[in-house]
Specification:
Elements: H1 3-26, H2 33-57, H3 59-66, H4 69-85, H5 102-125, H6 131-159, H7 161-184
Helix pairs in contact: 1-2, 1-5, 1-6, 1-7, 2-5, 2-6, 4-5, 4-7, 6-7
Length: about 180
């Protein structure tokens, strides 16, 4: 497997994390350096870990997870998206629930990286050493997430609360896309 192929896989896997980072930061909730670091680092970490886990687990457990992974991702992204849409506009962004902490962060990380589990399984089937591709996937995801955060922060300054609603809708649409792509084929 060439580095070009690995980067293409990494960009494909990172696209959901990029979009979620954009939406979360556009809501005005990922402004400080710690929140930016937490989002990008954890998205990259989960994208690194999931192919490794998929590679080690093998086909026995992944077959069960693959049957419901799209529903899990859909549910988690919709849950966070609905919370963003329904956030009280009277509560200033600094006082709202931070998507870069706690269960919200965990849910976003799992939802955006669950497909990487299947990639790890696929790499195991073709007998490719998992460590190098996983490292590239993690680094690309963290980098694209950070870019998404910066773009989202610029949009939130310009458009305010509307971007939080848009961010929530984006999360729901990403979840719907994941669900439909698995159901339709």
């Amino acid at each position: 497997m060439t580095i070009f192929e690995i980067i293409l896989i990494a960009v494909g896997l990172a696209s959901d994390a990029f979009a979620v980072s954009l939406g979360a930061s556009a809501s005005g909730m990922a402004r400080d350096h710690r929140a930016k670091f937490r989002l990008s680092f954890h998205f990259g970490l989960f994208q690194f870990m999931m192919p490794v886990i998929g590679w080690f687990i093998g086909s026995t457990v992944v077959g069960y997870i693959q049957a419901v992974d799209h529903w899990i991702a859909f549910g988690l992204l919709c849950f966070v998206g609905i919370h963003m849409i329904l956030a009280d506009p009277e509560v200033p962004p600094g006082k709202r629930r931070d998507p870069s902490r706690g269960w919200a962060l965990f849910a976003l990380c799992v939802a955006t990286s669950i497909d990487a589990l299947a990639v790890g399984l696929g790499l195991a089937m073709v007998r490719i050493n998992i460590w190098y591709p996983s490292a590239v996937i993690g680094i690309v995801t963290a980098s694209l997430s950070l870019i998404g955060i910066h773009i989202g922060n610029r949009l939130s300054v310009r458009f305010g609360k509307r971007m939080e609603v848009v961010g929530g809708i984006v999360l729901i649409l990403i979840g719907s896309r994941i669900l439909l792509s698995h159901l339709l084929g």
